[in-house]
Structure formats: C-alpha cells, structure tokens
Amino acid sequence: MSRLQIVTYPAPVLRKKSRSIKKFDESVQQLVEDMFRTMFEGGGVGLAAPQVGKSKRLIVIDTMEPGGRLALANPKILWISKEVEPFNEGCLSLPGLESEVSRPKEVRVRAQRPGDGEIITISADGLLARVLQHEMDHLEGILFIDYLNDEARSSLEPALREMEAA
Predict the structure, then answer these.
(1) For the segment 133-164, what is each residue's pLDDT rounded down to a tens digit?
(2) What is the DSSP letter of 13?
(3) Among 15, 42, 59, 83, who pairs with 141 as Cys (CB 3.0-4.6 Å)?
(4) How far is CA 40 from CA 4, 33, 83, 154, in A?
(5) CB 21 within 8 Å of CB 58
(6) pLDDT tens profile 3-43
(7) Where do the domains of the chain lie, and which CATH numbers do they carry?
(8) If DSSP codes are grouped into helix, strand and coil, which group holds residue 139?
C-alpha cells in the first residue's frame, strides 16, 4: 500500500467528468487501498479518484461511524431528500478552505463493490450522506466551492487566486 499524491485546485482533472470502471481487477483494489491510506494520512473522511489524478468513478469514505467505511465504484444517486441541512465543508484538494454548504439530509445510492463489481444500494443520512454527495460531486468535476453564494465565494477568492497562481 502506498500513499498517492493529492491533486489540488486548479488541476484540470478535478473539473473533468470521470470514466466508469468496467474491469474490476487487482489494479482497482490496489487503488482503493492506496486511496484509503492517502485519505487517512491527509486527515480526510472521503476521497475520490480524481483527487489522486485518476479520472475513474471510484470513491472511498470512512466517517469513523458504524457502516461509515465504504469503497464504491460507479456510484449513482437514486434519491435525495427534500430536507437539506447546512454544514461546514472542506476538501483535501482545496487545503485550508472551508465554507458552509447546504445538501440534502438523506440519500440513496447505487454503486458497485470495487472488488467484484457486485451492485449494492446504500441509504444514508447525516455525515455519511454528506460525504457521499461531496465525493460523488468530484466524479462530475464539481467542487464544494461551486455551491457557494457570491458572498461566501468572494471570501475565499484570495486563497483560490493564490492556488491558481502556484
């Protein structure tokens, strides 16, 4: 198991729609293990393959709650609740930045297990629902900053410009 390099904003891979995983083999399982290690060492609760430079529909999550450790390939949201809740979000690909984002409180997701491609359905609420949505956004090239209103976005603008210049 090795630690991967976390890609940071404004890397182009973070804005690309990821490709579906068609072949479930040892290389996918190795990527999952490496992503978990990278996420843990980076202090995150979720990580998507684009964040380590891989344009693949793969995410790992560990909320440290029962049932909160997941590795999912090709996830798709089937249902979201109408009820939303705000929460302060950050991202390993936007180090040091945080802002309040409102997201649906509950979700239902269909995905495949990276090891064998078996289709599973997950119903989640609370932190797990939020992390699922955040990581799945990465697979579509969406970052949490895309949800911010003008005032919140402008407060992060100096840091974003600094990242773009680096």
Answers:
(1) 999 999 999 999 999 999 999 999 999 999 99
(2) G
(3) 15
(4) 11, 11, 30, 30
(5) yes
(6) 999 999 999 999 999 999 999 999 999 999 999 999 999 99
(7) 12-165 (3.90.45.10)
(8) helix
Is 132 in contact with 75 (CB distance < 8 Å)?
yes
pLDDT tens-digit profile of 92-131? Answer: 999 999 999 999 999 999 999 999 999 999 999 999 999 9
Short-list 67, 66, 64, 151, CA closest to 109 = 67
Tokens of 24: 């479930």
DSSP 41-110: HHT-SEEEGGGGT--BSEEEEE-SSTT-EEEEEEEEEEEE-S-EEEEEEE-TTSTT-EEEEEEESEEEEE
